[in-house]
């Protein structure tokens, strides 16, 4: 291991608060919409990492998390909602050009990165006191803020954020304490700054639990069946419960309908894409015609799906529960994002060999 790698042992939190994103991509996969994919934020992390490297900043972005404060999907109102599409110019024959459906959404986000940084650079301002560290972090943050304003998030444009009384709107960075008690105290203070809002965390266990329950009724049920079953409301007639109203009117005949698999208090769960699975072997750079990058190896992929949950930040107990980390397994062709969140009521986790295969 090189000396440069050994020097990366301090961890910090980089926070880009209250980012206003206009016309972000609302279509997260061929089967889901309503919020950008997790891969859009890991892509942002990698794009920012390249910018930091080009600027000579000794920071390494490791994980990313997001908290959504406001969203406004650009759809028409009504029983069946459709995306508001742009009107493109006429073609050379004077006819309307073909419409390519594009989903857009306006967002207000807080994006959080876990950063590894060299302690030697952190102490470069002098004696290594707390004031020196804060000055160094402030210098890096100012430079990062300038870089981010020129970037896009999930294809959306960043708008200027006006100062809001009582709310931090300027990016900031802080060292993550190594002591567990101190880290918990700091995180409790940080998460209050992200209210009101909802953080998207991974719930792979929900898909495994639903698949197990569905196979009790349908032995041949696949993971895709379980995912579709959990992604929708499955209303069924359920027995009436004794109530005061029924006692007053025993002749009342009103059938109650509900989804037995969705219990009250389970939370706001959503189907989400979490990465990609390879369909072919990796092809050499430049072999595939019309690829966007002719210098990078190419592979055809399809989306990998799982479940997520929107949860208020004040219900998170540790910073790692907010974070998503990208994982690459070239041997199996799996490129996916892992969430650090573990639900207290479930012991089910996915192994790499058990990941959903929707072929």
Account of the protein in words:
The chain has eight helices and 13 strands. The strands form two sheets. Strands 1, 2, 3, 4, 5, 6, 7, 10, 11, 12 and 13 form an eleven-stranded antiparallel sheet that branches. A two-stranded antiparallel sheet has the order 8-9. Strand 12 and strand 13 form a beta hairpin. Helix 6 packs across helix 7. The two termini are 41 Å apart.
Topology (SSEs and partners):
Blueprint: H1 3-6, E1 8-25, H2 38-54, E2 60-73, E3 104-118, H3 119-122, H4 130-148, E4 152-153, E5 156-159, E6 172-175, H5 180-192, E7 198-202, H6 204-217, H7 223-230, E8 236-238, H8 244-248, E9 256-258, E10 268-278, E11 301-311, E12 324-329, E13 334-339
Antiparallel strand pairs: 1-3, 1-5, 1-6, 2-3, 2-7, 4-5, 7-11, 8-9, 10-11, 10-13, 12-13
Quick recap of the structure?
Helix content is 23%, strand content 28%.
Features:
11-stranded antiparallel beta sheet, two-stranded antiparallel ribbon, disordered C terminus, 359 residues, 13 strands, alpha+beta, single chain, disordered N terminus, 8 helices, 2 domains, globular
């Amino acid at each position: 291991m090189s000396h440069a790698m050994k020097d990366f042992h301090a961890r910090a939190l980089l926070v880009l608060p209250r980012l206003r994103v206009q016309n972000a991509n609302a279509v997260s996969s061929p089967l889901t919409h309503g919020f950008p994919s997790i891969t859009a934020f890991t892509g942002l992390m990698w794009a920012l990492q390249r910018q930091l490297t080009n600027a000579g900043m000794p920071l390494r972005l490791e994980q990313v998390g997001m908290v959504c404060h406001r969203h406004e999907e650009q759809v028409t109102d009504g029983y069946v909602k459709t995306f508001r599409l742009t009107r493109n110019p006429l073609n050379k024959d004077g006819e309307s050009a073909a419409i390519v459906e594009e989903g857009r959404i306006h967002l207000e986000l807080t994006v959080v990165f876990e950063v590894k940084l060299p302690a030697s650079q952190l102490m470069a301002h002098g004696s290594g006191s707390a004031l020196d560290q804060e000055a160094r972090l402030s210098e890096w943050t100012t430079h990062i803020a300038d870089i981010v304003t020129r970037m896009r998030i999930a294809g959306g444009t960043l708008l200027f954020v006006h100062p809001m009384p009582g709310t931090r709107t300027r990016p900031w960075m802080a060292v993550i304490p190594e002591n567990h008690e101190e880290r918990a105290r700091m995180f409790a203070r940080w998460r209050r700054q992200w209210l009101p809002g909802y953080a998207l965390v991974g719930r792979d266990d929900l898909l495994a639990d639903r698949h197990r329950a569905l196979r009790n009724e349908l032995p041949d049920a696949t993971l895709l069946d379980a995912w579709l079953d959990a992604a929708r409301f499955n209303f069924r007639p359920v027995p009436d419960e004794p109530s005061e109203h029924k006692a007053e009117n025993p002749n009342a005949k009103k059938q109650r309908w509900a989804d037995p698999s969705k219990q009250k208090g389970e939370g706001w769960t959503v189907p989400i894409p979490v990465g990609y699975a390879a369909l072919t072997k990796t092809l050499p750079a430049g072999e595939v015609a019309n690829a966007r990058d002719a210098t990078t190896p190419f592979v055809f992929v399809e989306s990998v799906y799982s479940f997520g949950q929107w949860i208020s930040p004040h219900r998170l107990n540790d910073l790692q529960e907010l974070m998503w980390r990208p994982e690459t397994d070239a041997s199996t062709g799996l490129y996916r994002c892992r969430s650090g969140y573990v639900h207290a009521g479930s012991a089910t986790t996915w192994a790499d060999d058990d990941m959903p295969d929707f072929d």
